[in-house]
Predict the 3D structure of the following.
Amino acid sequence: MLFKINRNACAYAATTMAAVLMNSVYQFYYVKLFLNNYKISSYWFNFAQIFYMIWNAINDPLFGYFQDYSKLECLKHRQLNILYGAPLYALSFLLPWFGWTNENSPDWLAGFHLLISLSFYDCMFTFVLLAQCSLFAEISRNKDERISLMMHSTIASILGSSAVFLVEIFSDHMQNIHGLQVTCVVIAIISWLLLTYSARNVQVDVDRSNHSKQQDSTNASWGTAIQTSIEIFTNKNFSKHALY
């Protein structure tokens, strides 16, 4: 048998499947929804997109810093990052599909809805996926084990990408908004369960709690985080990354 099922790799890949389930639908439909259904103005749509691109460039290094150096128990362990982030990640996925506007609503309200939706989703996407990426290195030092993780994650990605096809069917190509909403709620629940399963069942070879004394010696604090953030923002490479 060329492909052998690995229970630990399956638990790891459950996070991949959950992320692809939600992200494929989110990225494929949110632009159509806000432009065609919520009738967002071009000004507010462009403003929200620019803010999102800047925030997307900022939050990756910041969340990585907090996950590596935070003294909070929920941030010290990658599994807890995923477990506690799972419900908020699922909630952030649901935010765009339920409109905040009606015919008499001001233009800025749809823009504010898009701004909050994109920022919140990107926060939780980054928070959970950063933890998963770190888990990849902590699960095993063995090359074959890591290859198994990659193979299981690839299969999970293929399965998760089918969510767009299902949404197309049940929403009748976005003609049935109620069908879209119900399908997205089901996807969010399934993703939450997958993330919870992953967080509770994945086993690591490297326990970060054993390095807590080394982390404490770095004297991580809000002041250090702010100083690090300023260094990141003023770095020329970061400015280029944010612009591109």
Q: What stands out?
A: The two ends are 45 Å apart (CA to CA). Residues 7-243 form a domain with the Growth Hormone; Chain: A; fold (CATH 1.20.1250.20).
